[in-house]
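User: For my dataset I need records formatted as: sequence, then structure tokens, nothing else. Please produce one.
Assistant:
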Amino acid sequence: MTELNMRFSEDEQSRNMRKGALAAVATQLVRVGTQAGSVIMLSRLLTPSDFGTYAMASPVLAFAVLFQDLGLGHATVQKDELTQSDLSSLFWINLSVGALLALTQVLLSPLIAMFYGDPNLAALTSGMSLTLLLSGADVQHLSLLTRQMRFWTLAGLESAAALAGLLTSIVTAFVYHSYWAILAGSLASGVVLAAGAWLSSGWLPSRPGSIKGARDMLNFGMGVTGFNFAEFLSRNTDGVLIGKVWGAASLGAYNRAYRLLLLPLQQVTNPMVRIMLPTLSNLLQEPERYRDAFRRAVLPAFLIVLPGVAFMIASADTLVETLLGPQWTEVTPIFIGLSVAGLLQTTNSPANWLFLSQGRTREYMRWGFFGASTSVLAFVCGLPFGPIGVATAYSISECVRTPILWWLVGRSGPVRHPDVMKVVGPHLTGAIASVAAAYLLHCWLLAQSVDALPDLVACFCTSYAVSFLIVSLFPVSRGEIRRYVPGFIGR
């Protein structure tokens, strides 16, 4: 029988966190690689209108997914004591809600087609509902693997799912040259992930028990769902507005910029919640160990991701043309407009670990609605200026929100405001310096008529070198670097 309640010693906790970090890096290398492969390959097989049509229907699915999970996956991981009855109840809730939402999406699909004036959207929206059934069936199995800190198992499953989705999309697009290729890849990925989760977890649901026994978990999940709903608004309102006002082609260009910059970053930062939620939840009664685990996790996460973001910002014009082709030049200014948002969202991602592991889901939800309202306001202000205006306004709103977020996070809990400044400050400083250094080098290389590939390689190396140098100037960061590189001399 699967062990539902897990306890780990300090050494086991450290080993699990290291394994989780390595597994996350491996998984995200695969996922970012497949995401980049999808963007590059499909951009050559499909048209901007294909991507725009799919992007028009996507918010409907994303909205339904919010309520399919109900935040119960995080609740399963965070709960101290978990019974077979609790887990079975949550499984049947997730599956039933998924089926109900799938049926609702099919019934509403004609209205979506009428809203955009595109009859093709009815069939596409109905087809997307199949993903709700798949995700409803694997939520608790994946959460149980996370609770048990079986990170390498999860890494294998997610990597296999990502590769299956990429291969299916490319083959379908090559044969049919239609937006249906994107959906085919999504469904293939969902089937592989759900099947793997059931086979790997070793857990089978029993008859549903009383929902009363899982009431606390439902309350926790509702707070997470509230935040996810707000996040949905901030992630999808821009696409809906651009598609409605500026049309499918403009939305297709905006979608390519978003998927090239922000989506890969979310693929990297979001899975860290899977590692840090069980880790920090187990340390909540030990503040010093909690802070220590937080510092140790931030260093590799930021050192791997932030210099890469800085490189993409600094070399955006050459990078976009090299990856997508010259027919996508209109993506470059949109990409640059989104760049500041991408940088700040990466540095802000650890706030999610702290809110969830401390059970502060009501604050988490309130913050989500504040972020959504300011994002939507920014989209509306930028809309008259087209996709570039929307992207730029979104970055400006992220600049306004960032200090408010960290002030809110540091008000309570083991990680206070001075801890935030010591941990996040060096990496943000290093990223800004990396953007400046890589951009100056990029401009000089362009003036020298250097080819695209050597230009990009030089900027990439410069970004990582400058970021590491700046981060290592701060005492707290030097101490953390020594943990990972024992021979490092912090001078």
